[in-house]
Design a protein that fits this description.
Number of helices of chain A: 15
Shape of chain A: globular
Number of domains of chain A: 2
CATH class of the largest domain in chain A: Alpha Beta
Radius of gyration of chain A: 20 Å
Number of strands of chain A: 16
Strand content of chain A: 15-25%
CATH topology of the largest domain in chain A: TIM Barrel
Oligomer: homodimer
Strand order of the largest sheet of chain A: 4-14-13-12-11-10-6-5
Structural class of chain A: alpha/beta
Chain lengths: ~375, ~375
């Protein structure tokens, strides 16, 4: 089997494992930095390796529009194109169509929309999403799904029905999971019955992995955690569980405790470009005056190039002066911070002390201690 | 002596040497990438080392305004602040005051101007420029000079007189060259008698190095070369000669042949941020359609990380998508290109074949062959 999840250790609902893929092994739980346009923003691939990234995400919607998935296939696929030889995951384009494009029509066949780049008209269907993702050639690919407001029950019910039908068509369009593993996406917002309907349907299709979609898009954190509590037991134990679009440090540990294996999020790199840094004491805004003459690193506990080399005073100067180096250094730091957090989480599970780690991390990060 | 130029080999007017400084030896002729705001734009210091930079420049005007030279002194000086442990050169602020700021008044004492950042009022004098540069702590510092249009003889004559008086005041204000070497700047535009007047005055002050200022700012290339032809013999043989603000690949080799030892220019990094790459076949615009599916590196002859790793097709995509990684990779490539060019020039002089190197380089680069 090209793809399989080897579970090494469990502690309560959390588990440490290795997800084997054709481009290498992914220690789980894992955080995947997002490389929307075939680059994790501001981070060269050799630096991604250095900070310990094992899985990265790229966006089907963006790459389909520019430079084009046919071109990327012609150039040898996404790994070759962006010179990342580790595992890659592509989303299906479903979320971007709903969040970025101007939608003209949704019907049972697919979605017609206008590009956010130039207004040109495009259509995505379950079949075309799979074809595009096959052209891109990522290791893990996703079913084309319909996203919607997580608390709008009526829209969600329709979206779940459609997402199920589309999942079956994606499964049919992508019959061979040996080179690319197709994951199903459970929808249903914060409603247990809708999540059950979605999960039951997808389990029948026997995907090599299952994602929980439609969270972190408007519901409260408590609602998100409650949704994870009832949704994860609906998924098979022996397959990876991927919580899409979630990357707040507190959410990572709390979702791992509920049984999640895979995460992705743009937050660490986006925060960096806005001059914010993740630290064990919470987010800090590097523009703030107290850092002007601060000779400490951004995060005194951190082993990344940024923190091992530069002072907060210098970072503040770079951010205020709008220098690219500031975005580069903070991106490296923030992604490293989350990867290091995941390493610590894996170690805590292996040592049967995840609750202790979570308590002490959250007390300090959320300043509740 | 902390600073001295050891001349290793000459070929006609060109020479290979080593300029010794407290922060290390600089093989000459040398090209210094520009780090205006205490960062060579988009290039981390460890990458600067990797591509072979030995000397970098920073701007007194910019750093005085933001984050402030007193703060940088408090933080241990520019080397410590930006974590560059090699030699640094700061300009005097003279050029920036004339090119960026809104000048309120120039008088014999100095220049009153408004900041390009916030319109706040500032004054630079020979004494304050030296004090600022002493706060910054670069290895090589420059006299405060008056710049002007290189072909406007009347203005130039006044500027030369004032630059001479200001050079004497800078010499007086900075009496100790053991930690920071103060270079004089010859002005006079394209006029031999004005250059002679300027050079004669500066030689009397016995500076540890001499710059040729006021070129590459409006005159033709032929006028620039002619000016170098008559100005360089006016300067001492045993001191480094620095041609300010010049960095076109053709100018570098043609100026070395006329006896220049040091260059700086923002061109390689600025071009990179605009999506242009330097190659032995001239500048190329990475946005151009023919590169869309081009699997070759930006420059097939190049050994930098960009060219050893990525295709033109990927670089074109990054540039068109406005990705920071594109600016980073092209900045590294373009600076490496010029540093490699200088290495080749030094080797050619050592092998007594500089004319051959220049001929073959220029024929290909300027496409005149």
């Amino acid at each position: 089997m090209s793809f399989y999840l080897e579970i090494v250790k469990t502690q309560a609902k959390a588990r440490v494992g290795v997800f084997h893929t054709p481009h290498g092994d992914i220690p789980t739980p894992v955080f995947a930095p997002v490389g929307t346009q075939a680059t994790v923003k501001a981070i060269p691939p050799r630096d991604l390796k250095e900070i310990g990234a094992t899985l990265i995400l790229a966006n089907t919607y963006h790459l389909h529009l520019r430079p084009g998935d046919e071109l990327i296939r012609e150039l040898g696929g996404l790994h070759e194109f962006m010179r990342w030889d580790g595992p890659i995951l592509t989303d299906s384009g479903g979320f971007q169509v709903f969040s970025l494009a101007e939608i003209n029509r949704i019907d049972d066949q697919g979605v017609t929309f206008r590009s956010h780049l130039d207004g040109s008209k495009h259509r995505l269907t379950p079949e075309s999403s799979i074809r595009i993702q096959e052209n891109l050639g990522a290791d893990i690919i996703m079913c084309f799904d319909q996203c919607s407001n997580p608390t709008d029950r009526d829209t969600l019910a329709t979206a779940v029905t459609r997402t199920s039908a589309w999942a079956a068509r994606c499964r049919e369009a992508h019959s061979d999971d040996s080179r690319q593993a197709l994951f199903g996406i459970v929808q249903g917002g914060i409603y247990e019955d809708l999540r059950a309907e979605s999960a039951d349907f997808l389990r029948e299709l026997d995907f090599p992995g299952y994602a929980i979609g439609g969270l972190a898009v408007g519901e409260t954190k408590a609602e998100m955690y409650a949704t994870l509590d009832f949704t994860i037991p609906m998924l098979p134990d022996d397959k990876p569980r991927y919580l899409m679009g979630v990357g707040d440090p507190d959410d990572l540990v709390l979702a791992v405790m509920r049984g999640v294996d895979i995460f992705d999020c743009v937050t660490p790199t986006r925060l960096a470009r806005h001059g914010a840094a993740l630290t064990k004491d919470g987010r800090i805004n590097m523009r703030n005056l107290p850092y002007a003459a601060d000779k400490n690193p951004v995060d005194p506990d951190c082993t990344c190039y940024c923190c091992q080399t530069f002072t907060r005073a210098y970072l503040r100067h770079l951010v205020k002066a709008g220098e690219i180096l500031g975005a580069y250094l903070l991106s490296i730091h923030n992604v490293h911070f989350l990867l290091d957090h995941m390493r610590a989480i894996r170690e805590a599970i292996l040592a049967d002390r995840l609750s202790d780690y979570a308590d002490s991390f959250l007390r300090r990060y959320l300043k509740t201690g």
